[in-house]
Protein backbone atom coordinates (compact mmCIF):
# COMPACT_ATOMS: atom_id res chain seq x y z
CA UNK A 1 0.00 0.00 0.00
CA UNK A 2 1.41 3.41 -0.95
CA UNK A 3 1.30 6.40 1.36
CA UNK A 4 -1.66 7.92 -0.48
CA UNK A 5 -3.82 4.84 -0.99
CA UNK A 6 -6.20 5.72 1.82
CA UNK A 7 -7.69 8.42 -0.40
CA UNK A 8 -10.09 6.18 -2.33
CA UNK A 9 -11.91 2.95 -1.62
CA UNK A 10 -12.58 1.19 1.67
CA UNK A 11 -9.47 0.78 3.80
CA UNK A 12 -9.39 -1.64 6.72
CA UNK A 13 -6.95 -0.59 9.42
CA UNK A 14 -6.58 -4.11 10.72
CA UNK A 15 -5.67 -5.67 14.07
CA UNK A 16 -4.01 -2.86 16.04
CA UNK A 17 -2.41 -3.64 19.39
CA UNK A 18 -5.18 -1.53 20.94
CA UNK A 19 -7.50 1.31 19.98
CA UNK A 20 -9.01 4.14 21.94
CA UNK A 21 -12.39 3.26 20.47
CA UNK A 22 -15.00 0.97 21.98
CA UNK A 23 -15.83 -2.06 19.84
CA UNK A 24 -12.88 -1.60 17.49
CA UNK A 25 -10.64 -4.42 18.68
CA UNK A 26 -9.94 -5.54 15.10
CA UNK A 27 -9.67 -2.00 13.81
CA UNK A 28 -11.67 0.43 11.75
CA UNK A 29 -12.76 0.80 8.14
CA UNK A 30 -12.19 4.16 6.47
CA UNK A 31 -13.85 5.44 3.31
CA UNK A 32 -13.96 8.93 1.77
CA UNK A 33 -12.18 10.44 4.74
CA UNK A 34 -14.55 9.02 7.37
CA UNK A 35 -14.71 6.11 9.73
CA UNK A 36 -17.49 3.94 8.31
CA UNK A 37 -17.18 0.81 10.44
CA UNK A 38 -15.70 -0.45 13.71
CA UNK A 39 -14.56 -4.06 13.51
CA UNK A 40 -15.05 -5.83 16.82
CA UNK A 41 -13.31 -8.75 18.44
CA UNK A 42 -13.43 -11.88 16.26
CA UNK A 43 -15.26 -10.04 13.46
CA UNK A 44 -14.55 -9.15 9.83
CA UNK A 45 -15.68 -6.03 7.98
CA UNK A 46 -19.36 -6.23 7.06
CA UNK A 47 -18.66 -5.10 3.48
CA UNK A 48 -15.75 -5.81 1.11
CA UNK A 49 -12.64 -3.67 1.52
CA UNK A 50 -10.29 -2.65 -1.26
CA UNK A 51 -7.16 -2.24 0.86
CA UNK A 52 -5.78 -3.34 4.20
CA UNK A 53 -3.26 -1.58 6.41
CA UNK A 54 -1.62 -3.96 8.87
CA UNK A 55 -1.74 -2.08 12.19
CA UNK A 56 -0.37 -4.92 14.29
CA UNK A 57 2.59 -2.75 15.37
CA UNK A 58 0.40 0.16 16.38
CA UNK A 59 -1.77 1.54 19.13
CA UNK A 60 -4.40 3.70 17.42
CA UNK A 61 -5.91 6.81 19.01
CA UNK A 62 -8.00 9.66 17.68
CA UNK A 63 -5.83 12.40 16.27
CA UNK A 64 -4.92 14.86 19.01
CA UNK A 65 -6.44 18.35 18.89
CA UNK A 66 -4.43 21.39 20.00
CA UNK A 67 -6.65 24.24 21.19
CA UNK A 68 -4.08 26.90 22.09
CA UNK A 69 -0.71 27.82 20.61
CA UNK A 70 1.44 30.80 19.59
CA UNK A 71 3.40 29.46 16.66
CA UNK A 72 5.49 32.57 16.01
CA UNK A 73 7.16 31.98 19.38
CA UNK A 74 9.15 29.03 18.04
CA UNK A 75 11.68 31.71 17.10
CA UNK A 76 12.36 32.53 20.76
CA UNK A 77 12.65 29.25 22.65
CA UNK A 78 14.79 29.40 25.79
CA UNK A 79 15.44 33.06 24.98
CA UNK A 80 17.89 34.74 27.40
CA UNK A 81 15.46 37.61 27.98
CA UNK A 82 12.70 35.33 29.18
CA UNK A 83 14.02 32.21 30.90
CA UNK A 84 13.46 31.67 34.63
CA UNK A 85 10.64 34.21 34.89
CA UNK A 86 6.95 34.07 35.77
CA UNK A 87 4.36 35.25 33.24
CA UNK A 88 4.33 39.02 33.68
CA UNK A 89 8.12 39.59 33.82
CA UNK A 90 8.49 36.99 31.06
CA UNK A 91 6.13 38.70 28.66
CA UNK A 92 7.38 42.21 29.50
CA UNK A 93 10.89 41.05 28.60
CA UNK A 94 10.05 39.22 25.40
CA UNK A 95 7.34 41.45 23.83
CA UNK A 96 9.85 44.02 22.48
CA UNK A 97 11.94 41.23 20.95
CA UNK A 98 8.95 39.86 19.06
CA UNK A 99 7.79 43.27 17.93
CA UNK A 100 11.19 44.21 16.52
CA UNK A 101 11.89 40.98 14.69
CA UNK A 102 8.75 39.05 13.65
CA UNK A 103 8.13 39.44 9.92
CA UNK A 104 6.30 37.58 7.19
CA UNK A 105 9.30 35.47 6.20
CA UNK A 106 10.27 34.19 9.63
CA UNK A 107 6.62 33.85 10.64
CA UNK A 108 6.07 31.42 7.78
CA UNK A 109 9.01 29.32 8.93
CA UNK A 110 7.81 29.48 12.53
CA UNK A 111 4.32 28.31 11.57
CA UNK A 112 5.66 25.54 9.32
CA UNK A 113 7.97 24.22 12.00
CA UNK A 114 5.30 24.38 14.74
CA UNK A 115 2.71 22.62 12.59
CA UNK A 116 5.19 19.94 11.61
CA UNK A 117 6.12 19.35 15.25
CA UNK A 118 2.47 19.10 16.18
CA UNK A 119 1.68 16.56 13.48
CA UNK A 120 4.71 14.47 14.37
CA UNK A 121 3.36 14.36 17.95
CA UNK A 122 0.04 12.91 16.78
CA UNK A 123 -1.89 16.16 16.26
CA UNK A 124 -4.43 16.33 13.43
CA UNK A 125 -6.19 19.63 14.21
CA UNK A 126 -4.80 22.83 15.70
CA UNK A 127 -5.74 26.33 16.72
CA UNK A 128 -3.10 29.03 16.79
CA UNK A 129 -3.91 32.16 18.80
CA UNK A 130 -1.98 34.70 16.75
CA UNK A 131 -2.26 38.21 18.16
CA UNK A 132 0.94 39.95 16.98
CA UNK A 133 0.56 42.02 13.80
CA UNK A 134 3.52 44.39 13.40
CA UNK A 135 3.80 46.24 10.12
CA UNK A 136 4.40 43.79 7.29
CA UNK A 137 2.60 40.89 8.99
CA UNK A 138 -0.95 41.96 8.25
CA UNK A 139 -1.64 38.71 6.37
CA UNK A 140 -0.45 36.33 9.06
CA UNK A 141 -3.70 34.35 8.94
CA UNK A 142 -3.29 33.78 5.21
CA UNK A 143 0.23 32.48 5.78
CA UNK A 144 -1.04 30.03 8.39
CA UNK A 145 -3.85 28.88 6.09
CA UNK A 146 -1.34 28.20 3.31
CA UNK A 147 1.05 26.29 5.56
CA UNK A 148 -1.70 24.18 7.13
CA UNK A 149 -3.09 23.30 3.69
CA UNK A 150 0.35 22.28 2.44
CA UNK A 151 0.84 19.94 5.42
CA UNK A 152 -2.73 18.65 5.47
CA UNK A 153 -3.32 19.84 9.03
CA UNK A 154 -6.88 20.65 10.06
CA UNK A 155 -6.83 24.24 11.34
CA UNK A 156 -8.85 26.81 13.24
CA UNK A 157 -7.39 30.16 12.23
CA UNK A 158 -7.69 32.09 15.49
CA UNK A 159 -7.38 35.78 14.69
CA UNK A 160 -5.99 37.45 17.79
CA UNK A 161 -5.66 41.17 18.45
CA UNK A 162 -4.09 43.83 20.66
CA UNK A 163 -5.44 47.38 20.81
CA UNK A 164 -3.99 48.71 24.07
CA UNK A 165 -0.35 49.55 24.75
CA UNK A 166 1.48 50.20 27.99
CA UNK A 167 1.62 53.87 27.01
CA UNK A 168 -2.20 53.99 27.00
CA UNK A 169 -2.91 51.78 30.00
CA UNK A 170 -0.56 51.03 32.88
CA UNK A 171 -1.84 47.44 33.03
CA UNK A 172 -1.18 46.67 29.36
CA UNK A 173 2.12 45.15 28.28
CA UNK A 174 2.16 45.42 24.49
CA UNK A 175 4.59 47.92 22.93
CA UNK A 176 3.35 50.39 20.31
CA UNK A 177 4.50 48.35 17.34
CA UNK A 178 2.38 45.35 18.35
CA UNK A 179 -1.10 46.89 18.34
CA UNK A 180 -3.64 47.69 15.64
CA UNK A 181 -6.57 50.05 15.38
CA UNK A 182 -9.95 48.48 16.20
CA UNK A 183 -11.43 49.21 12.79
CA UNK A 184 -8.47 47.54 11.05
CA UNK A 185 -8.79 44.52 13.34
CA UNK A 186 -12.52 44.14 12.79
CA UNK A 187 -12.24 44.57 9.03
CA UNK A 188 -9.60 41.84 8.88
CA UNK A 189 -11.78 39.58 11.03
CA UNK A 190 -14.58 40.00 8.49
CA UNK A 191 -12.19 39.28 5.63
CA UNK A 192 -10.79 36.14 7.17
CA UNK A 193 -14.22 34.82 8.11
CA UNK A 194 -15.48 35.33 4.55
CA UNK A 195 -12.45 33.67 2.99
CA UNK A 196 -11.68 30.74 5.27
CA UNK A 197 -14.54 29.83 7.60
CA UNK A 198 -16.11 26.52 6.60
CA UNK A 199 -18.84 25.21 8.90
CA UNK A 200 -19.40 22.03 6.92
CA UNK A 201 -18.84 18.62 8.47
CA UNK A 202 -15.22 17.60 7.92
CA UNK A 203 -14.05 21.15 7.18
CA UNK A 204 -10.29 21.57 7.01
CA UNK A 205 -10.33 25.27 7.93
CA UNK A 206 -12.43 27.26 10.34
CA UNK A 207 -12.06 30.69 11.93
CA UNK A 208 -12.26 32.03 15.48
CA UNK A 209 -11.80 35.55 16.85
CA UNK A 210 -9.47 36.09 19.79
CA UNK A 211 -8.71 39.43 21.48
CA UNK A 212 -5.57 38.61 23.41
CA UNK A 213 -6.59 39.20 27.04
CA UNK A 214 -8.80 41.66 28.97
CA UNK A 215 -5.77 43.55 30.30
CA UNK A 216 -4.51 44.53 26.83
CA UNK A 217 -7.67 44.98 24.76
CA UNK A 218 -10.57 47.42 25.06
CA UNK A 219 -14.15 46.58 26.00
CA UNK A 220 -15.18 47.80 22.58
CA UNK A 221 -13.02 45.17 20.90
CA UNK A 222 -14.39 42.43 23.18
CA UNK A 223 -17.98 43.41 22.38
CA UNK A 224 -17.46 43.91 18.65
CA UNK A 225 -15.71 40.57 18.20
CA UNK A 226 -18.53 38.85 20.10
CA UNK A 227 -21.02 40.45 17.71
CA UNK A 228 -18.98 39.34 14.68
CA UNK A 229 -18.74 35.82 16.04
CA UNK A 230 -22.51 35.69 16.41
CA UNK A 231 -23.01 37.10 12.92
CA UNK A 232 -20.69 34.59 11.20
CA UNK A 233 -21.04 31.65 13.61
CA UNK A 234 -17.38 31.77 14.67
CA UNK A 235 -15.59 30.60 17.78
CA UNK A 236 -14.36 33.09 20.41
CA UNK A 237 -11.13 32.73 22.33
CA UNK A 238 -8.99 34.68 24.78
CA UNK A 239 -6.51 34.25 27.63
CA UNK A 240 -8.14 34.52 31.03
CA UNK A 241 -6.91 34.35 34.64
CA UNK A 242 -3.71 32.51 33.83
CA UNK A 243 -2.29 34.16 36.94
CA UNK A 244 -3.74 35.34 40.24
CA UNK A 245 -2.78 38.88 39.23
CA UNK A 246 -5.24 38.73 36.32
CA UNK A 247 -8.07 37.62 38.60
CA UNK A 248 -7.29 40.56 40.89
CA UNK A 249 -7.09 42.90 37.86
CA UNK A 250 -10.68 42.11 36.89
CA UNK A 251 -11.94 42.96 40.36
CA UNK A 252 -9.80 46.06 40.84
CA UNK A 253 -10.12 47.63 37.39
CA UNK A 254 -13.53 46.40 36.22
CA UNK A 255 -15.15 45.98 39.62
CA UNK A 256 -16.27 42.42 38.87
CA UNK A 257 -14.98 38.88 38.50
CA UNK A 258 -13.41 37.77 35.24
CA UNK A 259 -16.46 35.61 34.50
CA UNK A 260 -18.77 38.58 35.06
CA UNK A 261 -16.57 40.61 32.72
CA UNK A 262 -17.12 37.99 30.02
CA UNK A 263 -20.86 38.13 30.62
CA UNK A 264 -20.96 41.94 30.44
CA UNK A 265 -19.25 41.82 27.05
CA UNK A 266 -21.32 39.07 25.45
CA UNK A 267 -18.78 36.28 25.93
CA UNK A 268 -20.76 33.70 27.91
CA UNK A 269 -21.68 31.02 25.39
CA UNK A 270 -20.63 27.62 24.13
CA UNK A 271 -18.82 29.25 21.19
CA UNK A 272 -16.21 30.53 23.70
CA UNK A 273 -13.15 28.66 24.92
CA UNK A 274 -10.60 30.18 27.28
CA UNK A 275 -6.87 29.59 27.54
CA UNK A 276 -5.60 28.56 31.00
CA UNK A 277 -8.53 29.48 33.29
CA UNK A 278 -6.51 28.69 36.40
CA UNK A 279 -7.67 31.25 38.95
CA UNK A 280 -11.47 31.20 38.71
CA UNK A 281 -13.35 30.90 41.99
CA UNK A 282 -16.13 28.37 42.62
CA UNK A 283 -18.89 30.72 41.53
CA UNK A 284 -17.11 31.51 38.28
CA UNK A 285 -16.52 27.83 37.54
CA UNK A 286 -20.23 27.17 38.01
CA UNK A 287 -21.21 30.12 35.81
CA UNK A 288 -18.85 29.14 32.99
CA UNK A 289 -20.06 25.55 33.17
CA UNK A 290 -23.73 26.55 32.93
CA UNK A 291 -22.98 28.34 29.67
CA UNK A 292 -20.78 25.57 28.24
CA UNK A 293 -17.68 27.78 28.04
CA UNK A 294 -14.65 25.63 27.15
CA UNK A 295 -11.35 25.63 29.02
CA UNK A 296 -8.02 24.94 27.34
CA UNK A 297 -5.67 23.39 29.87
CA UNK A 298 -2.00 24.23 29.13
CA UNK A 299 -0.10 22.16 31.70
CA UNK A 300 3.41 22.49 30.29
CA UNK A 301 3.58 26.28 30.10
CA UNK A 302 1.68 26.58 33.39
CA UNK A 303 4.47 24.59 35.04
CA UNK A 304 7.29 26.45 33.25
CA UNK A 305 5.89 29.84 34.30
CA UNK A 306 4.63 28.53 37.68
CA UNK A 307 1.19 29.98 36.99
CA UNK A 308 -0.85 27.35 38.83
CA UNK A 309 -2.96 24.25 38.12
CA UNK A 310 -6.17 24.34 36.10
CA UNK A 311 -9.24 22.96 37.92
CA UNK A 312 -10.04 20.44 35.22
CA UNK A 313 -12.26 18.18 37.33
CA UNK A 314 -14.41 21.01 38.64
CA UNK A 315 -14.85 22.46 35.16
CA UNK A 316 -15.96 19.16 33.67
CA UNK A 317 -18.37 18.58 36.56
CA UNK A 318 -19.82 22.07 36.01
CA UNK A 319 -20.43 21.41 32.31
CA UNK A 320 -17.43 22.99 30.63
CA UNK A 321 -15.52 20.97 28.04
CA UNK A 322 -11.82 20.77 28.93
CA UNK A 323 -9.32 20.64 26.09
CA UNK A 324 -5.57 20.69 25.88
CA UNK A 325 -3.04 23.08 24.38
CA UNK A 326 0.72 23.27 24.07
CA UNK A 327 0.61 27.08 24.45
CA UNK A 328 3.39 29.31 23.19
CA UNK A 329 6.61 27.81 22.01
CA UNK A 330 8.48 30.36 24.13
CA UNK A 331 6.76 29.30 27.35
CA UNK A 332 6.57 25.56 26.69
CA UNK A 333 9.22 25.45 24.87
CA UNK A 334 8.08 22.97 22.22
CA UNK A 335 5.03 22.01 20.16
CA UNK A 336 4.53 18.44 21.31
CA UNK A 337 0.91 17.75 22.20
CA UNK A 338 1.47 14.16 23.32
CA UNK A 339 3.98 15.42 25.86
CA UNK A 340 1.29 17.81 27.12
CA UNK A 341 -1.02 14.81 27.63
CA UNK A 342 1.49 13.28 30.04
CA UNK A 343 2.00 16.61 31.79
CA UNK A 344 -1.79 16.98 32.19
CA UNK A 345 -1.86 13.64 33.96
CA UNK A 346 1.06 14.43 36.25
CA UNK A 347 0.02 17.93 37.28
CA UNK A 348 -3.57 16.74 37.62
CA UNK A 349 -2.49 14.13 40.14
CA UNK A 350 -0.77 16.78 42.22
CA UNK A 351 -4.19 18.44 42.59
CA UNK A 352 -6.55 15.46 42.63
CA UNK A 353 -4.47 12.52 43.81
CA UNK A 354 -3.37 9.33 42.06
CA UNK A 355 -6.94 8.04 41.76
CA UNK A 356 -8.43 11.39 40.77
CA UNK A 357 -7.25 11.55 37.16
CA UNK A 358 -6.37 8.72 34.79
CA UNK A 359 -4.43 8.28 31.57
CA UNK A 360 -7.78 8.07 29.74
CA UNK A 361 -8.84 11.40 31.25
CA UNK A 362 -5.69 13.08 29.95
CA UNK A 363 -6.19 11.58 26.49
CA UNK A 364 -9.83 12.68 26.56
CA UNK A 365 -8.76 16.28 27.18
CA UNK A 366 -6.59 16.13 24.04
CA UNK A 367 -9.26 14.52 21.83
CA UNK A 368 -12.96 14.78 22.65
CA UNK A 369 -12.56 17.71 25.02
CA UNK A 370 -10.45 19.73 22.62
CA UNK A 371 -12.83 19.01 19.75
CA UNK A 372 -15.73 20.32 21.84
CA UNK A 373 -13.77 23.47 22.72
CA UNK A 374 -13.40 24.16 18.99
CA UNK A 375 -17.12 23.53 18.44
CA UNK A 376 -16.54 20.34 16.46
CA UNK A 377 -18.49 17.10 16.76
CA UNK A 378 -16.93 15.49 13.68
CA UNK A 379 -13.47 14.82 15.15
CA UNK A 380 -11.94 13.74 18.45
CA UNK A 381 -13.19 10.15 18.70
CA UNK A 382 -12.96 6.78 17.00
CA UNK A 383 -16.59 6.23 16.07
CA UNK A 384 -18.67 5.62 12.96
CA UNK A 385 -19.33 8.86 11.12
CA UNK A 386 -16.36 10.72 12.58
CA UNK A 387 -13.58 12.02 10.38
CA UNK A 388 -10.72 9.58 9.84
CA UNK A 389 -8.25 11.61 11.89
CA UNK A 390 -6.06 9.02 13.60
CA UNK A 391 -2.67 8.75 15.29
CA UNK A 392 -0.66 5.51 15.15
CA UNK A 393 1.87 4.80 17.90
CA UNK A 394 4.47 2.03 18.15
CA UNK A 395 5.66 0.51 21.42
CA UNK A 396 9.06 -0.68 20.23
CA UNK A 397 11.25 1.82 22.12
CA UNK A 398 13.03 0.92 25.33
CA UNK A 399 10.72 3.21 27.28
CA UNK A 400 7.76 0.89 26.56
CA UNK A 401 9.44 -2.44 27.28
CA UNK A 402 7.54 -4.30 29.99
CA UNK A 403 4.36 -2.23 29.68
CA UNK A 404 1.10 -4.09 30.21
CA UNK A 405 -1.69 -1.67 29.21
CA UNK A 406 -0.88 -0.30 25.73
CA UNK A 407 -3.11 2.80 26.04
CA UNK A 408 -1.82 3.69 29.50
CA UNK A 409 1.74 3.09 28.28
CA UNK A 410 1.43 5.93 25.77
CA UNK A 411 0.91 8.36 28.64
CA UNK A 412 2.78 6.81 31.54
CA UNK A 413 5.85 5.72 29.58
CA UNK A 414 6.01 9.00 27.71
CA UNK A 415 5.16 8.55 24.03
CA UNK A 416 6.18 11.68 22.18
CA UNK A 417 6.29 10.82 18.45
CA UNK A 418 3.63 9.16 16.31
CA UNK A 419 4.76 6.63 13.71
CA UNK A 420 1.88 7.53 11.39
CA UNK A 421 -0.82 10.18 11.33
CA UNK A 422 -3.94 10.18 9.17
CA UNK A 423 -6.04 13.29 8.51
CA UNK A 424 -9.33 12.96 6.65
CA UNK A 425 -8.23 9.51 5.48
CA UNK A 426 -4.91 10.73 4.06
CA UNK A 427 -1.52 9.70 5.45
CA UNK A 428 0.17 12.89 6.62
CA UNK A 429 2.93 11.36 8.76
CA UNK A 430 4.63 8.16 7.60
CA UNK A 431 7.53 6.57 9.48
CA UNK A 432 7.49 9.53 11.83
CA UNK A 433 7.84 12.35 9.26
CA UNK A 434 5.72 14.20 6.69
CA UNK A 435 6.28 12.44 3.35
CA UNK A 436 8.60 14.44 1.11
CA UNK A 437 9.60 17.01 3.72
CA UNK A 438 13.27 17.82 4.25
CA UNK A 439 13.30 18.19 8.02
CA UNK A 440 16.96 19.13 8.18
CA UNK A 441 16.42 21.94 5.68
CA UNK A 442 13.45 23.22 7.70
CA UNK A 443 15.39 23.06 10.94
CA UNK A 444 18.38 24.86 9.41
CA UNK A 445 16.33 27.66 7.83
CA UNK A 446 14.28 28.15 10.98
CA UNK A 447 17.31 28.18 13.24
CA UNK A 448 19.13 30.68 11.03
CA UNK A 449 16.10 32.98 11.05
CA UNK A 450 15.87 32.72 14.84
CA UNK A 451 19.38 34.19 15.23
CA UNK A 452 17.97 37.67 14.56
CA UNK A 453 15.89 37.37 17.75
CA UNK A 454 19.10 37.17 19.80
CA UNK A 455 20.22 40.63 18.74
CA UNK A 456 21.65 42.54 21.74
CA UNK A 457 21.88 39.34 23.85
From TrEMBL:
Family: Belongs to the metallo-dependent hydrolases superfamily. ATZ/TRZ family.
The name this protein goes by in its record: 8-oxoguanine deaminase
GO molecular function: 8-oxoguanine deaminase activity
Pfam families: Amidohydro_1
InterPro entries registered for this protein in UniProt: Amidohydro-rel (IPR006680), Metal-dep_hydrolase_composite (IPR011059), Metal_Hydrolase (IPR032466), MTA/SAH_deaminase (IPR050287)
NCBIfam families: PRK08203.1 (NF006055)
Keywords: Hydrolase
Limits of the Amidohydrolase-related domain: 59-426
Domain of life: Bacteria
Organism from which the protein derives: Kaistia geumhonensis
Annotated EC: 3.5.4.32
SUPFAM superfamilies hit by this protein: Composite domain of metallo-dependent hydrolases (SSF51338), Metallo-dependent hydrolases (SSF51556)
Top EC category: hydrolase
Amino acid sequence: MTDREAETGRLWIRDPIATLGEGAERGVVVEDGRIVELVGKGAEPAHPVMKVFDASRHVVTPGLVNTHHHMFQTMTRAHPAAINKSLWPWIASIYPVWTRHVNAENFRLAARLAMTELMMSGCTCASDHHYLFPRGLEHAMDIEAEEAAALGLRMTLTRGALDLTGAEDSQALAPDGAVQDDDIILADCERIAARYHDRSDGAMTRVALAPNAPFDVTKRLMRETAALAEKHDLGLHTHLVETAREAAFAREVHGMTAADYLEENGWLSSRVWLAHGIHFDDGEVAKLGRHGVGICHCPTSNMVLASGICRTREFEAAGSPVGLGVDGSASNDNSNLMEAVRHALMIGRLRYGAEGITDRDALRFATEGSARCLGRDDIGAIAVGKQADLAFWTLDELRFSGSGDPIAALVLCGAHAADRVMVKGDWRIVDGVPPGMDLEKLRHEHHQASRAFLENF
